[in-house]
User: What shape does this take?
Amino acid sequence: MTQDLASAVATLHREAAVLYAGIAREFELTSQQTQILCALSQRPSLGELATILGCDKTNVTGMVDRLEKRGLLAREPDEKDRRVSRVVLTEAGEELRERIRTRFAECVAERFGALSVEERAFCRRLAAAVSSAGSR
Amino acid sequence: MTQDLASAVATLHREAAVLYAGIAREFELTSQQTQILCALSQRPSLGELATILGCDKTNVTGMVDRLEKRGLLAREPDEKDRRVSRVVLTEAGEELRERIRTRFAECVAERFGALSVEERAFCRRLAAAVSSAGSR
DNA sequence: TATTGTTATACTCTATAACTATA
DNA sequence: TATAGTTATAGAGTATAACAATA
Assistant: This one.
């Protein structure tokens, strides 16, 4: 039972990773850069961003540098703690993120065309359940 | 509606990626090496492995080299086409893959334990739909 | 003293182009 | 001619250790 769920998640992960890799190439980004743009919703600090990405904080410096150099995001000083930088999307970054999300949705829809209305309606609940489980 | 489905898949992907990255570190592997070990079921050629991973074939040479050097997999000549090498897990590789899968199942159970039976069932159906769509 | 972000280092992953050996 | 795998190269992601600024 647990193995079934795990292998389902593993399969979804692998397929989504391939999808994201292809989309990243279309937009001349790397997979990680695509992840950062899409996961960047609440002005995280660089350390928090490292946690979101599941990598070491030392990597985040360079990744943010490169995206900042392309004008897609920016560092902003934290108001309370002067050690902290917070990462925000620029207008160009937000626009690109929307194009990426739309493209990803197209690719997913292509693969899930046979889902029923009920199944699609269920997706809202699934997404909510997974993200609330992740934030605990 | 399509966006809901896509964001559910995106969330599952991101959570699974973080999980895999952590597990890879536990086993002193990279995320990609972990993916290769887990995705290596049907003696793929190196080119097929590139497709499975969603990357260029030129990367596969080095990744297979490193895993072969660690005794986790091996190249075997194709019987019909002498240009082709097929990749197989060694005994040590199969053993490690089982330990990774078990560990991943533990993490998924921990992480997604709050999902209802209905939600878990839907995850499995999504995975089945995605992998059959992917193999077309 | 502890934490945040940075730098330096070494290794891995990534795509492009050019090559070889087979087909 | 075309294809499978390799090599060379350059850029990007990765973790470890050491550091400056701030808490």
